[in-house]
Amino acid sequence: MGVVHLATSGSGLKLAVKIVHAEHAVDPEFRARFRQEVTAARRVSGAFTAPVVDADPDAERPWMATLFIDAPTLAERVRKQVLDRTELARLAAGLAEALRDIHRAGVVHRDLKPSNVLMAPDGVRVIDFGISRPADSDLRTETGKLIGTPPFMAPEQFQRPREVGTAADVFALGAVLVHAATGRGPFDSDSHYLVAYQVVHSEPDLTGLPRQLVPLVERCLAKDPLERPTAEELIAEMRAVAYPTAEDTQAFIPRPREPDGAELLTHRRERIPAAAEPRAPRRRRARIAVGAGIGLLLVGGAVGGYLRHGGAAGSSPAHIAGKADPAPAKTFAPWSVPLGKPGTGSRIGACSWQAEALYCAGPGLAATRLDPADGSTVWSLEAPAASPAKGTPTAGAPLHAGGRVLVVAPGSGTLQALDPATGAERWRQGLPAGSQAVPAGGQVLLVGTSGSVTALDAADGRTRWTQQIGGVGSVWWTGGGPEGGAAPDLYVATPDGSGSTQLAAVDPANGTVTRQFRTAGRLRPVGAAHGGLYLLDVDASSRTTAVVRADLTARTAQRVRLTAPLYDAEAAVDPDGATYLFGTSGALVAVGADKERWRLETGVTVASRPVVAGGRVHLTAPDGRLLAVGAADGRPAGQTRPRMADGKATYASTLPAPVAGGGRVFAGAPDGSVFAVDAGDPARW
Asked: What's the CA gap between 612 and 484, in Å, rounded?
């Protein structure tokens, strides 16, 4: 398939460079698999894998460079000597943590085996994502082929290869542990056909496995995927076996200091009442599980507020809670309330802030208005009762234009404009397939895939103008920012096939292009400040290499290169023009007018688009944590506890961004909640 070379980077790093053989490089299916391997390896780069340094899956001979891990594989180690009881228990704990992180990144490995496990001195590493796939994707590069290594494949990989999920990796973990302890597999045979039969129909042979591991491995090797534990569920049990102690070995986040009595009252939802005597800081368990829910499309960010949709369907009337408009509370207490209907699996919600009010959408809810003081419902509009087609995204955050709340319930194919005070529908408009809804001051634009743009009056839904602007691949941005509001200018960036992008400023009142020019790079708009449009320069491999400030009046573009590229980056721009980017490698980066200011490795491989407020950068993590980082210096300022859902299907390919307003920060979480914390004191979250 390929050859791996040991190489040295310019800075002295030892690298393993995998290069595809020439005969496979001409095979489109193999190229697709290699591209998928690169994508998966980038998504899971972390403590338990070999981080990707660079790659070019589209080169004449595709290649990928990862950090070289100088360690033997588990297969090599077992050939010399099987693991003893202590080594085996620690291997089990390490592999459970590795799978937890891999699954949290939304990847199913599908080929976990001894030769893909490196026994590094500081812990195991899982390598070779050549046949992995995204956990939330139905796409395959292979067409009905059996993919994997039979002694370590789960029954469903033989029976239903298109339905393989994270449970298959847990099955492989069990088989790997048996091999590490005994030198053979739980379903050993000289024939792969007999191995396959035994995997599907026979009970595993666990002879020679240490007694304390037998119950855990039996559960891992259950025939039914639903009966197997998740990697997260295994971690505590594996650690207890590997590191027997009377202490709680679960990860925790210590509080920096104890609050006084008044602070305890304002944080009563998070803490137990204080006793008369001071108490020791309570350990907070960091439950980090397979990432959060189905992807949510963020408003006003890189896409200028996408609202995608499917076939037409009716919508339920708004339910009014009978509550007057909320008055600001004198004393704010952090709160958390459930959002959406229980039993929907992935339940993460998305929110927006407008005119001192909080609006959210989630499973079963097209939109709801919450009192920002305590999270109580002011009104709610249910989504259509019919289930949207598979692959239809859940509701994005409500948009705002012209004093209306704009929503498209998943699968409805209808844009609804609601009264912000009552939730009553004021007008509705059917949407052409593939169109986007972009708020622009007092109107909303319906943007088609071919560049056709129709502006509707947001107050009454009447058509104001129709123009042909941009084209295929155009990305829109309203200068008011992702949280909505009036926009003095409307921007559109249209890349062409020659490596340049046409930038245009559009008058929202009549659709006239007021300024435009073409500049180099595949540019995507992410913000506007001081008359400039800020864009990311993103190459064909989804690498962001620079931040570009375009002045459409002067027809100039100033470029600030990143010290290292970011993959699948999301970004936010503050009012002073500083740009904050987060990439899937876990790096959060601040870029100023002429250079990169700081770079922080967050330890989170997937996060939401950054949101800047109150001198801090805020991110939502897949386990429901809200993170705060100082905007000036890049120092971590605080984080909330994890809020994970129960169950196995909790991965989100895209996380909704938090929302800042009224001195608070609001965020949705995988457990189905929306919560609020004091923006001014993240150290006490």
From this structure: 15
Question: Which tokens hold the place of 628?
Answer: 């705060």
DSSP 268-326: TTTSPPP-SS--PPPP-B----S--SS--PPSSSTTSS-----S----PPEEE---PPP
Tokens encoding 87: 């080594």
Q: Are 528 and 491 in contact (CB under 8 A)?
A: yes
Q: Which of 80, 70, 142, 68 is nearest to 111 (CA)?
A: 142
How far apart are alpha carbons 660 and 353 in whole angstroms? Answer: 7
Q: What's the pTM?
A: 0.58
Four-residue CA torsion sign, 108, 339, 572, 392? positive
> What average pLDDT does this structure show over 411-423?
90
Four-CA torsion 166, 171, 172, 177, nearest 10 degrees: 130
212-249: pLDDT as tens digits: 899 999 999 999 999 999 988 888 777 667 666 544 44
- Strand-pair partners of 446: 437, 454
Bridge pairing between strands 107-108 and 133-134: antiparallel
> Do the Cβ atoms of 485 and 465 come closer than 8 Å?
no
Burial of 121 (0-12, 13-18, 19+ CB in 10 A): exposed
Predicted local distance difference test score (pLDDT) of residue 261: 41
8 A C-beta contact, residue 669 and residue 676: no
Q: Can you read off the two tokens belonging to residue 430? A: 């059917």
Per-residue pLDDT of 483-515, as tens digits, reads 334 445 799 999 987 889 999 999 988 999 999
**Contact (CB, 8 A) for 533 and 572:** no
Burial of 394 (0-12, 13-18, 19+ CB in 10 A): buried
Task: Quote the tokens at residue 562.
Answer: 């990143």
Rounded to whole angstroms, the Cα distance separating 528 from 550 reads 9
Domains of the chain with CATH codes: 2-242 (1.10.510.10), 318-326+351-603 (2.130.10.10)
Three-state SS for 13?
A: coil
Task: Give 37's contacts (C-beta < 8 A, 6+ positions apart).
Answer: 64, 128, 129, 130, 131, 132
Query: For residue 280, which amino acid is it?
Result: A
Q: 196: number of CA atoms within 13 Å, CB side?
A: 12
Please tell me the distance from the alpha carbon of residue 624 to that of residue 236, in angstroms, as a whole number: 20
Cβ-contact 253, 639 below 8 angstroms: yes
DSSP 658: P
Q: What is the pLDDT of residues 563-607, one digit of tens each?
A: 988 888 999 999 999 999 998 778 899 999 999 999 988 877 778
Six-digit token string for 518: 């073409």
Cα–Cα distance measured from residue 37 to residue 41, given in angstroms and rounded to the nearest whole number = 6
| 417 C-beta neighbours (distance < 10 Å), count | 24
Helix 85-104 vs helix 231-242: crossing angle, to nearest 10: 160
Residue identified by tokens 């020439």 is 22
* Residue for token pair 């000036």: 632
What is the distance, to the nearest Å, from the Cα of residue 89 to the centroid of all Cα atoms in its chain?
A: 31
Write the pLDDT tens digit of every residue in 366-405.
Answer: 999 999 999 999 999 988 765 444 444 456 899 999 999 9
Q: Which two tokens stand for residue 258?
A: 């104890």
Which residue type does 559 have? R
**Side-chain half-sphere of 200: how many Cα atoms within 13 Å?**
11
Which residues is 600 bridged to in the sheet? Answer: 588
The amino acid at residue 639 is Q
